[in-house]
Amino acid sequence: xxxxxxxxxxxxxxxxxxxxxxxxxxxxxxxxxxxxxxxxxxxxxxxxxxxxxxxxxxxxxxxxxxxxxxxxxxxxxxxxxxxxxxxxxxxxxxxxxxxxxxxxxxxxxxxxxxxxxxxxxxxxxxxxxxxxxxxxxxxxxxxxxxxxxxxxxxxxxxxxxxxxxxxxxxxxxxxxxxxxxxxxxxxxxxxxxxxxxxxxxxxxxxxxxxxxxxxxxxxxxxxxxxxxxxxxxxxxxxxxxxxxxxxxxxxxxxxxxxxxxxxxxxxxxxxxxxxxxxxxxxxxxxxxxxxxxxxxxxxxxxxxxxxxxxxxxxxxxxxxxxxxxxxxxxxxxxxxxxxxxxxxxxxxxxxxxxxxxxxxxxxxxxxxxxxxxxxxxxxxxxxxxxxxxxxxxxxxxxxxxxxxxxxxxxxxxxxxxxxxxxxxxxxxxxxxxxxxxxxxxxxxxxxxxxxxxxx
Length: 455
Fold this sequence. Notes:
Strand content: under 5%
Oligomer: single chain
Number of helices: 17
Mean pLDDT: 81
Number of domains: 4
Order of helices and strands: HHHHHHHHEEHHHEEHHHHHH
């Protein structure tokens, strides 16, 4: 007998059973969100071989990207405002509505906003927020462009919380330290790649005026190779060249023949050794979870020492591996201890902040010194002008203007014109010749040195 063939139920019994199942489902949903918040906050997904909670939900729980992103955003905001769990558990708030509400929740308004959203649909919550937060603006069903929640599209459900790149790298423990509201995603995407029915991929980009001008120049330069000027073909050519550039920049020039990479000393890893490890590990994180799942992360990969240098490890191929940033930090905490790694991270942050402050102070001192030098030069120029006769001042101005017209800067022109004061009886032509000889002397000396080197 088919257990889902429920024709034996009366209308009243079917409605009562549906109410009961619906309430149980909402309670299970709240329990699931609480577990997502727990695993995300403690970053337990790393032990299972995943680099982020979003990828854990997609890979382990087989959620769609949109569903995983929305539930992760709601779980993170609910960890800071536990009332959200209660509202979802008894059906007073839906997940899509919580996604819209998440960026606006604050400790001072959370109770009031949640009470105002009881049993409201997602669109009704948008209108309510528009009326409360933007009273002068006309209510709109769809959120604005600046909102972290995107409008309905053919690929995502209403109230889409963000994409894989938006939420993937954000650890739950770091949410509270950001400047955005809980659950807010501040990244703006100008492009999207979606699979097409033909097996290819549709790439949609929004480019600026300057980027469009660059594209037009590329179309003109490739007129012989790409007569149609098809942006897709130019994009493919550009990606191939850029990939070769990035590989050369990171791994150096690929040798014509296989050359064994020698071990290195210290923390520096030669590019040839980086290439060997990169190709050996398949350009993918090598961390394997407790259930045998290998991390699938291919972004933000780092070369890690299996046995750390602090414990006597060598910079050799057999002691190197590729790890994503999340698992690199996880392995460091496991081997060296979480307290030690956290301490070293705080020390590094303080050093970066100190270096940044020192750089700003140095730049400010240089600017102040430049202003003092400019003021002193101006004072000397005025003093010299006061001591010159009218004829000498006229000749000084003529030489200064001629040097400026030849491309010398203001300081060089003043220095060359000052030579005229030492030759009061010389002609204007002689003074100008002397100034040019003095100002171009460094170039002449450099030319002589180059000539001797190439002889």
